[in-house]
Amino acid sequence: MSFSAAQTIRQLQQLNREPFSANDLLGRLDLGRDSRRKLVQFLDLLVVSGLLKHMRRGRYLLRKSLVLVTGELKRQSGGHGIVSESDGDREWYIASFRLNGAMDGDQVMVLELPGSRGRRPEGWIVEVAQRSRETLLGVCERSARRDAVVFRSEQDGQEFEVDAGFSADTLAGQVVILRIEHYPSANQSGRGKVIEILGAAGDPDVDIRSTAYRLGIPLHFSAAALNESRTIPAQVLADAVAARCDYRSLDFVTIDGADAKDFDDAVTLSQDDEGHWLLRVAIADVSYYVEQGSALDGDARQRGTSVYFPGQCLPMLPEVLSNGICSLQPGEDRLVVVAEMTFDDLGRRLDFKAMRATIRSRQRLVYEQVQHLFDHGVEGSDIEDGLTTMLQQMHHLSQALRHRRFHRGAIDFDLPEADIQLDNDGRVERVGRRSRLDAHKLIEEFMLSANEAVAEFLLSHRADGMFRIHEAPDLRSLQMFQQFLATLNLGITLDEHGIAPQELHRLLHEVEGTNLEYTVNRVLLRSMKQARYDADNSGHFGLASEAYCHFTSPIRRYPDLLVHRLLVHVLQGEIQWQPDEPFSRLADAATAAERRAMEAERDIVDLRKCQLMEDKIGVQYSGYITTVTAFGFFVELDEFFVEGLVHIRNLGDDYYVFDEEKQCLIGQARRRIFQVGEKVNVEVWQVKPAAREIDFILPDLDLSLRASRRRQGGRRKRWQR
Q1: Average pLDDT, stretch 699-720?
Q2: pTM assigned to the model
């Protein structure tokens, strides 16, 4: 039996503070004499840690009870780690020299150390119970030996020796995937073999591939799926047109972003004989081309959603479908599923029908074109004659729908999105705030209406399906949000059941247009539960909707494709149709895929923001405080849509204490207060792209920090020479 630190600790826990020798433990652990040296070294470490007392004649005595826990390690950018208990909510701080070769994500066994002074108890990883990965993503760098490279892990910065397989010239500066051959230990680095080269470090395309690999997002379609996609005709066949409604004479238009290629939806509007509005929302009939159980279906299910990055997209379906036969391109016959809704002038839905149809989009419009029409009329508009009147009528109807939705209590989170502008090489030039136009809101309202109508229609025929649900926030989260609002002289009314959506809508309307708008929106969003997919409908709190689903984007979302299949089967009278997996399992997988995609998109946006600010060290900007925490406060810049941290350790003019109730930092001597919404001037202090972190300082920073920066800059310059 080999030596195990965890087994040794368990034996020590049974000794009940009785003196013992190393030989006593060897017998209890059934270890050979060759393990004695390791055992004695471990016991001496326990002595140094204050857990054992070394007595005369080589005997030991427990000074403290030994606490051994199992948890997951999360390596931090500072080199240390945090271990979260597997079956509880406790956490331990692990200094870098106590990691014992453990890697980010590993299941580890931690010995709690006495005398911890921080907010978390300190621990020592004595054993790795289970490794979290067999491969790593990272960069190869030249080692001290000219003909060799070392691999540095992106996850935690650990170095690995690289086995032969590629030349040093080939690997140096490349982002690679390393298969671990030997895991690191306390006194020995790991070793591995490069199995794939993603490309040069710093290449924007490689940034995206790296993020996708790290989060498990497939980069390539299977050969079987690609083969299937090649068999799909590039044009709509006549027999498909004959079997459905022919709406090619109607004035359908698509309205999307200027860089969009996958056009899921087209809309048209007319009035019936009674003066009611007849809105038709046509959605690409992806289910006609992607059959359940096919290779295309399998790849789409694995992805769950398309992932959109600045300047790039990892599509859910091969481009021959997503940008080709399924995309509702102008002047081309396309197969669709139409949600046909009748509204009165106040936006009340009077009727709903759904059918398979063929359409031919009249014109591909972009949001700015449509907004120009709304703002300036037909003068200077490049929209085709005959469409402008319809678009203005759409504007009128969308405003009625929006007003009605808000009246019932729907919450509209008006959080700006990053508008990242790239040069021809894909490198970031500017990060601004994307405008939300009335043209955007028009399409939003029409898609919301279609999704809601389809969900209600399906529920009228069966109980289960693929619904989009949003549960009400729990009372504790609302109470904390209420306390936060009080610090801003704002308030909401709660009762024992929580809060009515109308009350939150009133609050957001109150802060609209003020410097508190963004912060209140963001903190409220964090107080809410996340929307998710479910086989059973329980309503959508944020939309104040009794039933909701995702129907309008089957090119880029797998749940929408499932809803299309279900809708088509119901229309054909097959009410009890079921997919090849339970809806509940498909819903959980879709939710996980959606959150994975959101994490990937956020990761690249944060990276691009860091890359924008890398050459702006020392530059001062104005901004305002968006969040205050115990470790500092975050500031969003006015000039760029970029946020950075002013760490409390860099507030050298006073000793600051976090007031949790008032959500502010208060200087104990000078009584200076930093709180949400306050305008401040900051200086870019440091940028850490690998950690996706930007640090600011205040311009009146003490001189010691500036001297530190000069010393660091001098070291960098000497190294560069």
Answers
A1: 51
A2: 0.87
